[in-house]
Design brief:
374 residues; alpha+beta
Length: 374
């Protein structure tokens, strides 16, 4: 499917019990693990692990000429979105009339938990994989004047999820957090997972061996007192939870391939083969090699006809790309890539001195970027 899968179970809010959670937990974890693998793969590609790094030339006897060039467009586009949205300090306000002192405290608290930095990190996951998450929980504060009575963490998309009801409205039912751990079992290290599930009223913890599967019996059951809200906040740019990597992967792979194959072609042109027709360079391989060395040093090569009927000749064996046509294609692919997500290109194609700054920004996609991010 396109985008991350929304986790849905046929349970209403007032029907949610431990037994219901246990009943649907295998289905939920199966979908969650698919999302987690997908999100982690896409995040690694955003960081630079592109498909081109596995490039093998199928029609080459040797892989000596096999360039692997990564163009960091996904990296640049995601970072542009994050910087464009959260590059300046965030300001909080209430639409209705509010106590000024209230908002002053709230801004202090959000500053103390570095909320802008958290949003920037969440946005990175949103634009890369399609969804990002914040985890919020209360804490005891020693100084309410400056220290927030809560703490917030940015969570990797492959570690957390929200589970919704499949009934009309798709109300959130519970949150889950997966924590991988390692255990020393029988003098060997084994991978285990701690699965934490938060409902409005209860906390359940499951522990199971990662490669074997979930144990449906909770190892911990606790009542949640006071704070009757789910701790996970889910963010996404589109309801389909699709990110840049998935939607732009083919364009990114094409640009990587163009650069890599073009460099291969340049090196093959530089190292082109000479074919001597009806001409003898020497009796041994060493003599032939020395003849070519002398020819390159002197800048000249004499070729004598061996027959009156068949003429001697020297040709080069090379397949050369038309780099002008290739660059036209590359620029078109790059323009399509950036325009589809509302990111202006870094380089301007405008050469006129009469274009205003505003006109230049519009022509380079800044107006489109502003409209898209709104």
């Amino acid at each position: 499917m396109v985008g991350l899968e929304k986790l849905l179970i046929p349970v209403k809010e007032n029907e949610l019990t431990l037994e219901k959670i246990q009943e649907y937990l295998p289905t939920v974890m199966d979908a969650f693990n698919r999302n987690a693998r997908k999100a982690r793969t896409e995040y690694e590609k955003f960081k630079g692990q592109h498909d081109i790094l596995q490039k093998v030339r199928p029609n080459s006897d040797t892989q000596e000429i096999n360039h692997k060039v990564v163009e960091q467009h996904l990296w640049a586009m995601v970072n542009f979105k994050c910087g464009y949205a959260y590059g300046n300090p965030l300001e909080f306000a209430k639409k209705e009339t509010a106590d000024v002192n209230e908002m002053s405290y709230f801004n202090k608290y959000m500053s103390s938990v570095n909320f802008r930095g958290l949003c920037d990190n969440v946005a990175e996951w949103v634009y890369t994989t399609g969804a990002g998450y914040l985890f919020t929980q209360p804490k005891k504060s020693d100084d309410l004047e400056y220290d927030a009575p809560f703490e917030i963490y940015s969570m990797p998309t492959d570690r957390v999820a929200k589970v919704y009801s499949s009934y009309i409205g798709e109300k959130p039912l519970f949150d889950l957090v997966c924590t991988p751990i390692k255990k020393l079992i029988n003098n060997g290290i084994e991978d285990y997972t701690i699965l934490s599930i938060y409902t409005l009223d209860m906390y359940y913890e499951f522990e199971y061996q990662t490669q074997v599967g979930a144990n449906l019996k909770p190892t911990k059951i606790e009542q949640r007192n006071g704070y009757k809200l789910l701790p996970i906040t889910e963010f996404y740019a589109y309801s389909s939870r699709v990110g840049m990597v998935e939607s732009l992967e083919t364009l990114q792979n094409a640009l990587d391939s163009i650069d890599s194959d073009s460099l291969d072609n340049i090196q093959e042109t530089v190292n082109q083969l000479l074919i001597f027709i009806n001409a003898k360079l020497g009796d041994t391989n060493e003599e032939k090699r020395q003849t070519l060395v002398n020819a390159r040093k002197n800048g000249a090569l004499e070729v004598f006809d061996q027959s009156k009927d068949i003429h001697a000749d020297v040709k080069t064996l090379v397949t050369q790309l038309n780099h002008t046509d290739v660059n036209v294609l590359k620029n078109q692919l790059k323009a399509d890539m950036y325009a589809s997500w509302g990111v202006p290109l870094a380089m301007s194609g405008i050469r006129s001195g009469n274009v205003t700054q505003g006109g230049s920004e519009v022509s380079n996609g800044w107006e489109h970027a502003y409209s898209t991010i709104l």
